[in-house]
Amino acid sequence: xxEQEKNQESFARGRRRSSQSHQAILQAARExxxxxxxxxxxxxxxxxxxxxxxxxxxxxxxxxxxxxxxSLTSHTEVYVPFPDTGSxxxxxxxxxxxxxxxxxxxxxTVLSGLAAEAQLDPVFAHEFQRTFIVPRKQELVALLQRGLxxxxxxxxxxxxxxxxLIYGAKWYRFLLHPAPLDDVFAREIVKLILRLRSEASRT
Length: 203
Fold this sequence. Notes:
It contains nine helices and no strands. It is mainly α and about 200 residues long.
């Protein structure tokens, strides 16, 4: 019995150390990304900052791209909850209000650097799409689907294309900075989307 308890305590300590190392690596990767960008980031630099060996990093992540993406997505300011208030107008307004801060400041700098890298590196582009873009688009489509089911969009609305239009407008302003990502912009997009409902009701 005593031996069993000792083994359980040892396992718990090991799990805590693993969790601490995992978080330290993600934090280190985040800091290196902010300082030098994705292209100049190295596994060696992450390991040195986190106080671990390179083997520890490769135990959890197969590549620099993988650790970079998890370091980005693990930060709460980048995660955008998709509201379900029972109103498409309110859901979309909240979605924009919650998503814009993650595209500004250090998070925005890191994300724009990763988006640029995705244009140059096909392997990284695949990971970026798989772990960052696609899951978020799927959640946005689900948000729009709820609105469609409530009769807030025309029955024949192509939700995939509508989600692309929303992301396209947001990322255009995010990457090229022609105008700010602000409440005025959010309201105008929501107004245009809701116009689809009013157009449908007249036909």
